[in-house]
Target: Integral membrane protein
Amino acid sequence: MNQTTGPDRATGRRTGRGFGRVLVTVYGVLAFAAIGRSSYELVVKFHEAPVAYSLSTLAAVVYVVATFALAIGTPVWRTVAWVTVGIEAVGVVTVGALSLADPGVFGESTVWSGFGQGYGYVPLVLPFVGLWWLWRTKHSTSARTSEERTA
Model:
């Protein structure tokens, strides 16, 4: 196969391939954990700390959408991934800082409290790895899209 039609050039560098598979797996595990936690909190304990439990639900939704967006990796889903992973980064930094400044600010802990301390700080590291991966794979996806338009 020549350089322009080889398997790597034809498929391009998608977000859900290579290292992206590991990233999608970690997002999936975190999404599953956050859904479990927020579902329980919403059903059983919502009246105790509605803000905290709503934030946990938001985190769960963000993780689910980011997981699918990173796994699919088409241009539209890449945009969705940029937005959701960006929201995640802002959320974990904001909620983490507020919860450290005043531990009782939300009434109870959330997925993002203490910068994700209850989840081994994975919620703090993950969005920045996700943003790096999206940035890292953007050029090859753009090149692939240009090649598809000229074909």
Observations:
- The radius of gyration is 18 Å.
- Residues 122-150 form the longest helix (29 residues).
